[in-house]
Amino acid sequence: MTPMTILITGGGRGIGAATALAVARRGFDVVINYQRDAASAEGVAEQLRSLGRRAFTVQADVGDERQVLAMFERLDAEAGRLAGLVNNAGIVAMKARLDEMDVARWRRMMDTNVIGTLLCSREAVRRMSIRHGGAGGAIVNVSSIAAVLGGPAMYVDYAASKGAIDTFTIGLARELAAEGVRVNAVRPGIIDTDIHAASGDRARPQKSAELIPMQRPGRADEVAAAIAWLLSDEASYTTGALMDVSGGR
Ligand code: NAP
Q: Which of 19, 44, 180, 240 could form a disulfide with 130 if both were Cys (CB 3.0 to 4.6 A apart)?
């Protein structure tokens, strides 16, 4: 059987890296996209190869159409059949109120979190949808519980970008439901990864325990398990779902 491949954007670190391991353990080959940190991405690929999976890394800024097209061309040439896409690459910015933010920050945020997800999804649909001669597949978008909470006095722009992802997930799921492609999202709460350093508080996960009903931040592998399930055939009747992985927050 042709090996089935999952593309994970931002798969070199944090939730993306944990997802790469989780899907590799379920038998998928993995393509790991990264933007800057080649060493981390290569380290994850090595781990997957040691599990007996095929894995390679591709550098691309998901917000840049030319780079995304080149990434998918490389997949076409070197990877097995694309069975799934995880739109995980995402950024936050320094904690701020709206009246302190500039447009450059919003453009960076929307380019990565929203345009990146749309672009990669478009290319995946062109390959996976039976309408385009594909064999079906699954997309999982990594949203955030911030889409529900709004991120006040922290990052309302980030929260809005994730709100867009939720709406996109529902719409694309319905658009593709009869074409063999399922589309779902996970909404992580506060997860212990490097991303918090970019909002100016590396220790936020530990400091936030009392805000979380479960009284602790989540781990990347706990989000990865939900993503891997949504990608798998066990989730064969699940599409358009927004799954909170947030410790009850
Ligand atoms: P992270 O540890 O900072 O990792 C982010 C990953 O995204 C990195 O691999 C990074 O690549 C990649 N990336 C960033 N911009 C990119 C771009 N333009 N093109 C390609 N790759 C890019 O973050 P994380 O916490 O794992 O977050 C992953 C996702 O979960 C994000 O969408 C985030 O919004 C969401 N999320 C996280 C939390 C949380 O508390 N951690 C909560 C809710 C939602 P490099 O390694 O090359 O830098």
A: 180
- Among 8, 15, 108, 214, the mutation site with the greatest number of ligand 1 atoms within 8 A of its Cβ is 15
Q: Is residue 88 pLDDT above 70, yes or no? A: yes
pLDDT score of 2 more than 70? no
What is the tally of structural domains in the chain?
A: 1
Q: What does the block give as tokens for 235?
A: 């989730």
Backbone angles phi, psi at 82, to 5 degrees: -75, 120
Could you tell me the residue range of the domain that residue 183 belongs to? 4-245
Inform me whether the pLDDT recorded for 194 exceeds 60. yes
Pocket test for ligand 1, best of 7, 34, 119, 143 (most atoms within 8 A of CB): 34
C-alpha distances in Å from residue 8, one per residue of 18, 200, 230: 10, 26, 14
Q: How confident is the model at residue 3 (pLDDT cuts 50, 70, 90)?
A: confident
* 218 secondary structure, DSSP code: B
* Overall pTM surpassing 0.90 (yes/no): yes
Ligand 1 centroid – CA 143 distance (Å): 11
For every residue of 134-166, DSSP letters joined together read ---EEEEEE--THHHH--TTT-HHHHHHHHHHH
Q: Residue 76 maps to which CATH number?
A: 3.40.50.720
Mean pLDDT value of segment 14-37: 98
